Amino acid sequence: MSTLPPCPQCSSSLTYEDGSLYICPECGHEWSALAAQQTESADRPKVIRDAVGNELRDGDAVTVIKDLKVKGSSLVVKMGTKVKNIRLVEGDHDIDCKIDGIGAMQLKSEFVKKA
């Protein structure tokens, strides 16, 4: 059984390796092994973990583990604040949520633990 990736252009499983390239004999498409590895790693979903290492999912409740200053205001999210029904997003701040008394915010997963 072949462990070579199928052709990204025509999905043929008859690909072969020639040096550092993969080649499809059916459509003649050539691509690098590095491009194939990047495509495989992009297909895997990103796992977001809290400060302790627990996997987070949409809808989880988390607790803030340190005081966080809110940019552009004098408000502070106090340590121990429980945040319900989080939503995971892509980007630098990977949690979207609403905090009572403050409103909609984005948090980094490194500053929360799963409740």
From TrEMBL:
Domain Protein YjdM C-terminal: 48-115
Gene3D superfamilies associated with the record: 2.20.25.10, SH3 Domains
Top-level taxon in the UniProt lineage: Bacteria
Domain Protein YjdM N-terminal: 3-32
InterPro entries: YjdM (IPR004624), YjdM_C (IPR013988), YjdM_N (IPR013987)
PANTHER family according to UniProt: PROTEIN YJDM (PTHR30305:SF3), PROTEIN YJDM-RELATED (PTHR30305)
Family to which this protein belongs: Belongs to the YjdM family.
The protein, known as: Zinc ribbon domain-containing protein YjdM
